[in-house]
Design goal:
The protein is of the alpha+beta class. It contains three helices and two strands, in the order H-E-H-E-H. Strand 1, helix 2 and strand 2 form a beta-alpha-beta unit. The relative contact order is 0.19. The N terminus is likely disordered.
């Protein structure tokens, strides 16, 4: 029986500095170009972050979003205006009226119910 996963991803992207190849193994664009199976992540990769993130991760997520868009990925990258690391979970009128965790649980349940052989 397949079980749904909850994946929390905090990307730390390091770019070459001043034309040097600093950390090529962390370059998401290069990684996606080499491994095309990483591009088809619909309903598997969700990165939701506030634009005022407490740990300043929004810059890394913007880079990730741009890199994945360049190679045609279908990942769900969402930057929520005015939210930080702590306030992201609170209800949002359009995105998650009942709170972010309620939306996550609802989507996970839908994936589970749609899977072949799932117990309903």
């Amino acid at each position: 029986m397949r079980r749904p996963h909850l994946l929390v991803l905090i990307p730390f992207l390091l770019r070459p500095l001043h034309g040097q190849e600093a950390f090529p193994q962390t370059d998401t664009l290069r990684l996606c170009e080499r491994r095309s199976e990483l591009l088809t992540v619909k309903d598997k990769l969700h990165v939701w972050i506030g634009t005022l993130d407490t740990f300043r991760l929004e810059g890394a997520v913007r880079l990730l979003r741009d890199d994945l868009a360049k190679v045609g990925s279908d990942a769900d990258i969402l930057l929520v205006e005015g939210r930080d690391h702590g306030s992201l979970f609170r209800p949002h009128p359009e995105l998650w009226p009942d709170g972010m965790l309620a939306r996550i649980h609802k989507e996970m349940r839908a994936q589970y119910d749609a899977a072949p052989g799932s117990v309903k």
